[in-house]
Structures are given as structure tokens and as C-alpha cells.
Amino acid sequence: MRMRLVWTAGLVACSGLSGSVLANGWNMPVGVTDVSREIHSLHMTIFWICVVIGVVVFGAMFYSLFRYRRSRGAKAANFHEHTTVEVIWTLIPILILVAMAIPATATLKTMYDTSEADLDVMVTGQQWRWRYDYLGEDVAFTSNLATARSQVSGESAKQENYLLEVDEPLVLPVDRKVRLLMTSDDVIHSWWVPDLAVKQDAVPGFVNENWVRINEPGIYRGQCAELCGRDHAFMPVVVKAVEPERFDAWLAERKEAAAQEAMGVDREWELDELMERGEQVYGTICASCHQPDGSGSPPAFPALAGNQAILDDPDYHIDTVVNGVSGSAMPAFRSTLNPVELAAVITYERNAWGNETGEAIQPAEIAELLDEQ
Amino acid sequence: MWRVIKSVLAAFFGVQKESRRHEDFSRGRASHFIIAGILMGGVLVLLIALVASLAAR
Q1: How far is B37 from chain A (nearest CA, A)?
Q2: Which of A82, A83, A105, A107 has the highest number of chain B CBs within 10 A, making it the mutation to test binding with B?
Q3: How much is the ipTM here?
Q4: Is residue A77 assigned to a domain?
Q5: CATH code for the domain of A96
């Protein structure tokens, strides 16, 4: 009677504990795709198999230790080997492993089947942001951290989506198969969104494939999961899943905007226009190293305010931003920014924080340079 | 020959009778077991490759 009470109490404690662990978000999420649900149910099945094995094995062990202790006069058996028992304890794990491997392999096969996708998106990791190209649609943009630096330094309160918010999320349609082609421009990154059950390395020089078919509209957040340098924690992933009709409308809008931007390259820009645009670009791209006030963090990140080397030589300034400086922390921005953004940010750097060259670098000039190289 | 094959299979499985082990060590030649082990290792690899290619169809 007392024994049964102890067992019941133990079971209640165990199930209560596991319940609270699952409820507190310590477990992996169920997610919003069929694959993520399959992975979650596999995870739970295998978890409970492990629990049962653990209870049986340790239960038998503790029971034997307790029941056959020396103080109660137990005598140790003395035999060398027992082939039948050995065969049984080899066969049982084999059967359990095969039983787990069959559904796991079936899920893996589904996960790797990237054929017949409705939409291809190229995901490119860059230090430290993600770039998304909707292949064949002429729509591409970079997705930068939107959390204010003042929250990082503790000067202002941290908001709910601290370090998990971006200026432009990856917009994807629900109920369509989207193929994700992952690569990197610099070092190895990893694109990880738990709710989509995707964690895929983005390796320079390789294209890894993955796919998602999202079932529910919503916003799903993730992070870079491969240590990629100083701002590894500052390149989150945000996926915004919308209804297919809304996605089509959004894509058409983005195409239109891209066409407008392409036209903007040819016209003459005013200094004020470029300054306004440049300040925006500087804030998302440059400020994390060169600081919002252009003071930099020498010696790794030189100051731009009052930097005579760039102010005296516009060509050197342009080349530095477009092509980067090899062997230093300065990356090339030719594939990250378009000619308008490049011209705007260079103009901004030449006319902000007391830099007063009065020069407006025209997008057309940059576009010509990019064509030549 | 058959005895060597059975012993190598037992080694793959990981369980062997003590009496057979004694017999192998007193009567068998090491080179026979080594050659049989390498050949059967190759057969195992081919079998797994066959099963995998059938499953992937």
C-alpha cells in the first residue's frame, strides 16, 4: 500500500514536471508547417521511448541495488557470460533503433524533396544581415536589424522583440511551396527559424536547398545559428507569412518600386534628396561600426567625420564603399546596396557631422562604375 | 571455412560463445579471420548500399 502511494506520487510529480517543461516553452515548438509538426511528433515519440527505457533500466538497477544489498545477506552470483541474455540485450536496442529510424527517415526524405516549388527565394548571409532575392521576379532586398543600438547598450529599455526585429522581413505566401536556396557572401552563417523547422547553413561558394510550406499566416522569428563574427547576434531572421493574394499584391508592389528605383539611377539627384536617403542607409548599414555620429571605433573602424583621406579624394571614398578594403573589416557593398543607395550614403558621409564638401555623388556615376568593373 | 564465417558474423553482432572463442583461438589462424572480416565488411557495405538505393527509388 505504501509502495503504491510512493509510485503514484512519483508519477504525478514526473508528469507535472514534464507538463510544466512543455508549457514553459522549453520544448521545441510545434511550428507552422507539416514538416515542423512531423519533426515535433518524432521528437516527442523518441523522447518518450527514452523516458520508458530510462525508467525501466534505472528502475531495475535501483531495485536490484536495494533488494539484494549485502546487509540483507545477498550473495553475488559468479558466472562469466550468458549468451542468450547477451543476444537479447543486443537485439532489443536494434529493434528499437530500427523502429525509430523508419519514421525518421521518412521525414528526412520529405524534408529533402525540394522539387516542384512554386517560388524560389535565394537567401544570402552577409556580415551581418540577410539578403533575399525572389528569383525570376526582380525583387531583392537586405533585411537589417531594427532594434535601436540604445537598447543594446542599455541606454533605453529593451522592447519585446529585442534583437528579433528587422527593417524588412522576408515575406512569404502561405499554402505554397517555397524553395529556399541558401548561400553566403563572406563566412558561414546559418538561417534558423524554429517555427518553420528550418536551420540551414549558408556557406560561401555552395548553394544549400531547403523548403517550407507555411500553414498559418503570421510572423515567425529566428536568428543566425552559426557564429559568424562580431555582430552574429545582430542579424535576426523575420518571416512574415501572408495569404497568397496578399503576397501577390506585395510582390507586384515591390516590382513596381524596383522599377522606379532603376529609373532613379538615370536622373539627376538633388543634394538634399541624397542626404535624406543616405542618412537612412547609413543608419541601417554603416552606423554599427562607424557609429551614428561618424566617430568610428579606431583603429578597427576609422572615423568618417573629418577623415581627410576620403574627403580629399572622392574616387578613393567611392572605391572603399563599393569594393571594400581587403584584409580589413570593411566589406564590399556592391551587392548589398543599389547604385542609388551607394550614391546616397557616400554623399551623406561627405556632408554630415561637419564634413562639408557640398558634393552630391550621382547614382548614374556609381552605376557606370559598377558596369565597368 | 563455415566456422570462420560464423565467427566473423558473431563479431559483427558483438556476441560470441566462450567455447567457440576458445576453439577459434586454439585451432584457427589469424590471417583467415582477418581476410574473412575484410571481405565480409565489403559485402556488408554493398548490402547497405543496395538497400539504400532500393529505398531511394
Answers
A1: 20
A2: A83
A3: 0.76
A4: no
A5: 1.10.287.90
